[in-house]
Amino acid sequence: MSSPIVSLSHVNFGPSNTLILDDISLDLEAGHFMGIVGPNGAGKSTILSIITGRLQPDSGHIDLFGECLKRFNRYRLLKNIGYLHQLHDYTPNLPLKVRDIVAMGLNDYTKPLWQWLGSASHQHKDIIQALQFVEMEHLIDRDFRHLSGGQQQRVRLARALVRKPKLLLLDEPAAALDSNQQQKLYTLLRQLCDTQDVAIMMVEHDIAAITGHVDSVACLNRSIHHHAMKGEQIPEDVWHQMYGQHMHVIAHDTGCIGCHHD
Amino acid sequence: MIDMLEQFFTSPVMQDALPPAFFIAIVASTMSVMILAHRLSFLTVGISHASLAGLGLAIAFSLPLLPTATVFCVGIALLLAAIPKQRGISEDTGTGLLFAGSMALGIVLISQVSRNEVDLFGLLFGNILTVSEQDWHWLLLIGCIILFAFIMMARAWWSIAFDATTAAASGLPVSLLRLLLYGTVGLSVVMCVKLAGIVLTTGLMVLPATCAWLWGRSLISLWLLSMSFAIIGTFIGLLFSYYYDWPSGATIVLTLCIMFIMSWGAAWLTQRNK
Lengths: 262, 274
Prior knowledge:
The complex is a heterodimer of chains A (262) and B (274). By secondary structure, chain A is α/β, with parallel strands linked by helices. Chain A contains nine helices and ten strands.
């Protein structure tokens, strides 16, 4: 059996009296689509930052693609990851065409200038393909700054996809999209998992919107309160025992079990 | 008119001054693109003023001027790249602090030397007409290092300027690259100080790409445009400074400013007519 794409074991992060992440363990197999839900400040984005090595966990162990994530192999391992961070983290101010932005996702983008000139044609094919996937290929020569929020978001997704990652880490990818576009996006992601065996870890706050698409949902609030597989039913008394209040387990909604403080 | 140009090109002063002036313009306009993309214009103000302390040290201890200033500027630039985030001081505060401190140190050091030993006016406002053979070799060396660094890392720097978080998450050593960027900016500031002087360096480092920003739509086009603006600005500036006997650095910066206003007006007009 092949090793999981991501494996976190007993990861802790934050000062010991106010842990941000408390003893997180989870595995993600190839082709698996996992949703992470939880309230604000639950540590959802922190998990993604730890997997990309931007934050160091205080204790615990992370395996990526079967290798232990360390300082020295980090840059190599990250080349197989597509990452989309939260929208508010960034403000584009550079005059750039859509095609240039997607090209930034390519692993050989940062090569010296003269090497880039030689390899433009096969890159062009990859860029078109990624843009087609998010239905943006007709805007390839537009200035990125003149696009709408939803269009920008789809271009950024294309940038994460163009490197053909084995693992996609998405932080609220649907934030700027209307509900129609959201469902389209989730369908696209589902397709990636099924046809290309990509593993996806997606942080999202709207559980109801994603349940139809994901393979499992992890309810996170400091620690993982529950990891439900698709169609899985959890005995209600377990929840009563854990939280002591009435919960709807099957129908994930905003009142999700994992999303309440105990 | 032809006579005028011929006289300009054949004058011995200009024959000495033109190659370094154009070389500096090319290097400065190259880094200018990155300075705008990373919003480092205040950093160039800080480093150029800090170079006065480097020059002061060189004069006080009779060390070679340009090399000492180079080491000092790069040191200051790297310090500014490394310190602020760890100590909780914002970057512009750190820059302002070092800028004032090293300027003060420079003034104290230079005041100790008798006046006719130091061309203070030349240091502050630049004097490309007094480039010695040694200076020229030194400028060539650091200019080539800067251009090489740019060609090697331009795309990585560009990618970081666009979105540092994603760049870091997709496997770029962002802090190292940023350190190298600051160091390279420090080097280019030293070169500009020779042409435009401490006070006007920022103009030379910021204006070319600012003109190009209105027209360029990609890294390469911005770079080429920025260089063209800088070369034309330097040429016209030197021409005027030669004929009217104006200070060369100031005239070049003034020309670039006028070019920016014209470029801005043209961009505004084309956009309105669309």
